[in-house]
Amino acid sequence: MRNNFNPWHQVTPHTDANDVVKGIIEIPKGNRAKYELDKESGLLRLDRVLFSSMYYPHNYGFIPQSYCDDHDPLDILILSQIEVVPLCIVEAKVIGVMRMLDNGEADDKIIAVAAGDPSVTHYNDISELPPHMTTEIMSFFEDYTKLENKTVVVEKFFDKETAMEILNNSYKMYQQHYGELHKWFFGK
Question: How many CB atoms within 10 Å of residue 155?
């Protein structure tokens, strides 16, 4: 039986707060498994186990109803004191973005804090994070694919305003790419 629910297309990303989005977790923090959304079924699939002895430093997933140049939804890294289970919807306050190139292609990562976690909700912009935290994030993404002979270059971290522009552009790209199909298939 085919799964008729696809979180990429059917979860509304917006909340009552302009800077809070719904992120869908694919990979819990502290994990070596690289799970990805199977675009057709809406289920998670195991892409691979990381070749490096590294673990995701924070919860990692995507923002529904977003689309980027890499033909995937926009990635989101959600900081929290806990590991969040895969396919959980997490309301997250956007605080910045990490611009990076993955094998020469743009692959932005929105940086956010779990809105329901009092240990991180006081952060409002990436500039407020402890320097070691951004260094740790950058180091993970630069190094986790080296043993796979892939090249990742972290260009720079940008502020909340830049992150919101990238997010809004990804919503527009989604509408351009999936708008009519979305209305026809899901009736919305």
Answer: 12
CATH 3.90.80.10 fits 7-176, yes or no: yes
Q: Are 54 and 2 in contact (CB under 8 A)?
A: no
Whether residue 72 is annotated as binding a ligand: the answer is no
Q: Whole-model pTM?
A: 0.92
CB of 110 within 8 A of CB of 163?
A: yes
Averaged over successive runs of 10 residues, the pLDDT of the chain (188 residues) comes to: 77 96 98 94 94 95 95 96 98 97 86 98 97 94 86 90 97 90 54
Any binding-site annotation on 34? yes
Query: Is 75 assigned a ligand-binding role in the annotation?
Result: yes
The answer to the question of whether 70 is labelled as a binding residue is: yes
pLDDT of 144 reads 87
